[in-house]
Design goal:
Layout: E1 24-28, H1 33-38, H2 45-56, H3 69-75, E2 81-85, H4 105-120, H5 136-154, E3 163-166, H6 169-181, E4 187-188, H7 200-204
Parallel strand pairs: 1-2, 1-3, 3-4
Protein name: Uracil-DNA glycosylase-like domain-containing protein
Length: about 220
């Protein structure tokens, strides 16, 4: 979204402690109420499931399993793991105040965000984000943030490239759309389910990422 968006006050940006030490980047969907309160991504109950997932696989030994992963990154000043949201604006209509009427420009934008979220959460449908669609402004903002981040991490001397992990279908679709236009090589892991999914615990039983991410990348 542009800086003139009437929803500007609700924006929340990415969580990167030190781009020069970043090894793994989680791509999540969008902020919600807990994130707005904490002023950083991944601050709710679902994000606590991500903490448990990573610590159970032997990563981030300093993390508190009772805290959401975004809060762990902030409190520990943990530089090796970062978070970027597809949308810096909440995509869930329930987030916004009920005083927002359909006649307002803000309400129209919120509806577009909700439609996009609903469409992309059904499965892999990256082509839904058409270059001419109004919703493409949201994707362009994501692409700009991710491109800047990739350039910043690869401009320093590092032995390993950044590993990108999309969580859920919305994030996967954004990353696939980005990958289709990106000129370089990206190191993308197969997506994790969204931690708020009803079948999250069942899905992660058979997911192991230790073969793709050495332990010393997320000590």
């Amino acid at each position: 979204m542009t800086t003139t968006s009437p929803l500007e006050r609700y924006k929340l940006f990415d969580s990167i402690e030190d781009v020069t030490q970043l090894n793994v980047l989680l791509v999540l969907e969008s902020p919600h109420i807990n994130e707005y309160i904490h002023r950083h991504p991944a601050a709710g109950n679902a994000a606590a499931e991500l903490t448990k997932f990573f610590t159970a696989q032997g990563y981030a030994s300093c993390f508190n399993d009772d805290l959401p992963i975004g809060c762990n990154i902030k409190t520990q000043r943990y530089p090796f793991l970062g978070i970027i949201n597809c949308s810096s604006l909440p995509m869930n209509k329930e987030f916004y105040p009920c005083t927002m009427t359909m006649a307002e420009e803000k309400a129209v934008l919120v509806d577009k965000l909700m439609v996009m979220r609903t469409q992309l959460s059904k499965g892999i449908d990256a082509d839904y984000i058409k270059p001419s669609a109004p919703e493409c402004k949201l994707f362009n903002d994501f692409a700009k943030r991710l491109t800047n981040l990739i350039y910043a991490t690869t401009s320093v001397e590092k032995a390993d490239d950044i590993i990108i992990i999309p969580c859920g279908y919305v994030a996967t679709n954004f990353v696939k759309r980005f990958q289709a236009n990106y000129k370089g090589t990206l190191n993308i892991l197969k997506h994790l389910p969204h931690p708020s999914a009803a079948d999250w615990e069942e899905c992660i039983k058979n997911i192991t990422i230790t073969d793709n991410i050495p332990q010393d990348m997320l000590p």
